[in-house]
Amino acid sequence: MAKVIYQIVQHDGGWAYKLGDVFSEPFATHDKAMKAARIVALGQQVGGQSAEISYQGKDGEWHYEHADGGDRPEVEIIDGEPKP
């Protein structure tokens, strides 16, 4: 299962949540950034419909897979930078 980690950090004169190197819009307070991150994290838990998908890989070959709409990532929110 994939894991998605949002971090709450100071950014652009306020607070933001970030995923990897991508920041959300800035929020005026830490609490508002945390609330926004929780909303986004809950959205990650909403399943979709299963589907059969196909795509052409870098090798030029076609690949066929079943995408399980209920396969959702684990989500974590970290207040600040993650500990090593």
Mean pLDDT: 88
Radius of gyration of CA atoms, rounded to a whole number:
17 Å
| Tally of helical segments | 1
Termini gap? 21 Å
Strand order in the sheet with the most strands: 3-2-1-6
Number of strands: 6
Number of domains: 1
Tell me the fraction of residues in β-strands, as a range. Answer: 35-45%
Shape: elongated
Q: What would you call the structural class? A: alpha+beta
Order of helices and strands: EEEHEEE
Level of helix content?
A: 10-25%
Please, what is the oligomeric state? single chain
Could you describe the 3D structure shown?
The structure is a single chain. By secondary structure, the chain is α+β, with helices and mostly antiparallel strands. A hairpin with a 2-residue loop joins strand 2 and strand 3. The strands form 2 sheets. A 4-stranded mixed sheet has the order 3-2-1-6, covered by helices on one side. Strands 4-5 form a two-stranded antiparallel sheet. It is built from 1 helix and 6 strands. It has one domain. It is elongated, with a radius of gyration of 17 Å. Helix content is 18%, strand content 42%. The model has no long low-confidence stretch (mean pLDDT 88).
